[in-house]
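Email to the structure team, subject: Na+/H+ antiporter subunit D model.

Hi all, the expression group asked for a predicted structure before they design truncation constructs. Nothing fancy, just the tokens so they can compare against earlier work. One-line instruction: predict Na+/H+ antiporter subunit D, return tokens.
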Amino acid sequence: MNALVPLPVVLPLCVTGLKLAIGPRLHRFQRFISIAVLGAVLVLSVVLMVSADRHGPLSVHLGDFAPPVGITLVADRLAGLMLTVSSAVTLLVLVYSLGQGMADRDDQAPVGVFHPAYLILVAGVSCTFLAGDLVNLYVGFEIMLVASFVLLTIGGTATRIRAGSTYVIISLFSSVLFLVAIAMTYAVAGTVNLAQLAERLQEVPPGVRTLLEAMLLTVFAIKAAVFPLAAWLPDSYPTAPAPVTAVFAGLLTKVGVYSMLRTQTLLFPGHRLGDLLMLAALASMVVGILGAVAQTDLKRVLSFTLISHIGYMVFGIALAGGGGISGAIVYVAHHITVQTTLFLVAGLIERRDGTTELTRLGGLARTAPLLAVLFFVPAMNLAGIPPLSGFIGKLGLMRAGVADGGGWAWALVAGSAATSLLTLYVMAKVWNLAFWRDAPPGAEEEGVVLESAEDDDTDDDTGDDEEGRAPGSAETPGSAETPGSGEASGSGEASGSGGPAEAGSGLPVPAGAVVSAGFLGQSITTTKHLPWPMLVATGAAVALGLSYTVLGGPLTTFTQAAATELLARTPYIEAVLGR
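Reply from the structure team: attached below.
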């Protein structure tokens, strides 16, 4: 069984090599192998999770080199659960992206660019969850960073390049800090293997141990978008294509949370920075949800709620007890699924109505009842309405806070309740504006374009034939005539705006204008008939979120066992060191 541990990392990388060798050919075959490999990773993840639950942590030393020389991969209950949830979510997002690519008549971008980068991203996430040493954890982060930059900037529009550049700069800074922390750890302990560090760091002077803990927490807090290190997120995620935004928002920040969980329980038990973590958790909750209240664009609303709800997970880690750790694990699994689902729904709304700006939306509950249901269920789940899984996770965290009884714990219990109520308010606001009220006057009909590719500094002297036209975009598939739109004009000017609409600005522009909503920046028009793979994938994500409610008892039991195993540390250490 131990031999299966590397496969969630190896399989996506091998298939990526095969796809790059094939090139932009055999589109159906490439779609099939992409789905097949992620399906296989999901099955492997379930097998590893069940085996770790029944028999204890599984470990493998690559090349049969023992620590501290070799690379160690470990699958315990926590890693198995994270692998299973992430594999299910990435599979659904891939199906969603296939629907978007087919709807855009864009064969080359998903197959030639998106799929290889996406599979590398999946391999990086799996490597992070299975890493048994700090260097391999760093490698997993860097694999994700490389793939993330490609996915964020796919299409090469100015807005995406700008947002992707910000993301990469912040990520590179955290990577440098991570390398420094790894070097310092090796200098004081003579190893970077997590099992060996769990023993040796207890002999390190308290001041040095606290410094190492602070550096690692800073690195992981940047990755997890914990306030005040989260300013990069709201401007980076919403500009990417809908599938990219969904998987980034739902999954990548949780990799940082997972790393905090792993290192705080294994390397720094009884950590001395608990109060600082509680302060960061409370600030993330409050600042994030207040930011969401102030937004009028759905993607930005969801981005700020993402920051806010990271605070719940940090709350559980800061409590450092069985109840807090268990509640944090439940909430991580819940939030990966629900946040991904909400961003998928946002992509459907944008596909249908040409914008996610709430002031331009309305009447969707009447005109698109299926879309309304797909939004309402995860929205209430995020708000923590009983008996949904969001309520289960929040209740576990708040009970752990009450049991702790400290001043900061009580402050976080109150902050958790207030944040949950404000989340409900934000979701009700979105529901009222986008779904419940009548459509505002002048709402765009079918045929408007999702985004303009016009640069901010478009030259006003540009000729009529070139005005608003991105290089090489005149022949793009989506620039063809659309129902009720007439022939493509390429004017690039928003109706009634008096000027070009910026990419990602949420301003609908006339059909046929040069746009960047697709994978490669081709023109894309809205449609009331949403592609069925996108609907099926979103519906399956909603069902996955509901399954946590149906299986709430077994899930809670599993996470309690995982928390006990994490706090005990001995099962992990013995599995890795062979004692």
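Residues 158-189 form the longest helix (32 residues). The first strand starts at residue 58 and ends at 61. Ping us if the truncation boundaries need rechecking.
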